[in-house]
Fold this sequence. Notes:
With 123 residues, this protein is mainly alpha-helical. The protein folds into two domains: 1-30; 32-116, Cytochrome Bc1 Complex, Chain D, domain 2 (Orthogonal Bundle), CATH 1.10.760. The protein has six helices and no strands. The radius of gyration is 23 Å and the shape is globular. Bound molecules: heme C. Residues 45-46, 48-50, 57-58, 61-62, 65, 74, 80, 85, 88-89, 93-96, 99, 112, 116 line the site of heme C (HEC).
Amino acid sequence: MSRSANRTLQITPLALLLAVATSSARAAPPTVEPLESGRAVYEHWCAPCHAAGPGHPGTQSLQVKYGGRIPPVLLDRTDLTPQLVAQFVRQGVLSMAPFRKTEITDAELAALAAYVARNHKAP
Ligand code: HEC
């Protein structure tokens, strides 16, 4: 065997290891747990106003605001980013009062925003 072939054989395991390490870091399993906890926060704080059907002021208000051009139900939307969701939650809008950190912590908000924006598609 030639010397250069020998060196290739020595390098390969390290290269493989690095490739596996970096690719597994990139392809980390989807973070199911935060989405689950985000769903719980949503069900508690948001669904009463944003669920589908009559009697939900958030859904009704968004129906009027967008005139049906986009879905009035938050969870059906594909345009909301986590940043936008978080901004509305902390600042409030119209009859939706801002949520304090004693109600929804920053960690809960991150999970909530990721959950509500889970269908976000880049334009
Ligand atoms: C008391 C009822 C109520 C609750 C509770 C509520 N919302 Fe709202 N939400 C509204 C109303 C009303 C609007 C205003 C719609 C408008 O601008 O016409 C709104 C607007 C929004 C918007 C802006 C959407 C847009 O395109 O303008 C987002 C995002 C939103 N709510 C997210 C949430 C989240 C997340 C929660 C839970 C933390 C939540 N809301 C809880 C009533 C509520």
